Amino acid sequence: MRPFRPGWVPTLVVLALLPGLIALGCWQLGRAEEKRALLASYAERRIEAPLATSQLNGNEDNAMRRVHLYGRFDAEHSVLLDNRMRDGQAGVELLQPFHDQASGLWLLVNRGWLPWPDRRVPVHFDTPAQALALDASVYVEPGNTFQLHPDPVGGQWPHLLTAIDAAQLWAQLGREGFAHELRLEPGPASYRLGWPIVAMGPEKHMGYAVQWFALAIALVLLYLYFGWRQNKEKSHGHRHSTGRA
């Protein structure tokens, strides 16, 4: 049996890369399990009866909880969330302050997606003037949105922004408001809805885990292959030089 002699450089490369590849695969498996648990929790909340707005500030975890609203939209202070793609078409999401009459609380309600194919023409939308009874779900941003440049503060309404900060909006308007966005359910004030519950589902994390583990296996196989091959070439060269002598 030929001895296995891969050499120092390949050995150091494998020792440096293999633990990282395995760790990345395990991390993706963990993320997939977290997403499954998160989706199961959100699915339970979707079938629960809506909360009253007065109950929001008493809960530590409001993510995806359904809320019943009754009040009016503020048509003068609309926000357009830019760079929202649907079916390959550019558009925006329309968010407006909503004053809930029962609690007196201001809420930032996302009414859905609107197409905006021509930037030279303002986005067209209507705001109901009458009081409405609506159902919505609390959306808690999982992290800070990446921005190349911060959004300008102030300016004409509606504001065109790339990220939503409800607390900053309430401070700008001088109002006491709820700290998170609410996303409308289908109803008289909604436009196109249909947001993904999570940006990346568990199946994608599983796919990435398979890729990392496959790279780890490929690295080990290459290490074994070149270790045997290098030893074979050395043995062949040694026999050739001995024969000439």
Automatic annotation (TrEMBL):
Keyword hit for Isomerase: no
CC terms in the record's Gene Ontology section: plasma membrane
Lineage, broadest ranks: Bacteria, Pseudomonadati, Pseudomonadota, Gammaproteobacteria, Pseudomonadales
Membrane topology qualifier: Multi-pass membrane protein
Listed name of the protein: SURF1-like protein
Subcellular localization(s) per the UniProt record: Cell membrane; Membrane
UniProt organism field: Pseudomonas juntendi
Transmembrane segments annotated in the record for this chain: 206-226
Keyword Translocase listed: no
Family to which the UniProt record says this protein belongs: Belongs to the SURF1 family.
Keywords from the UniProt entry: Cell membrane, Membrane, Transmembrane, Transmembrane helix
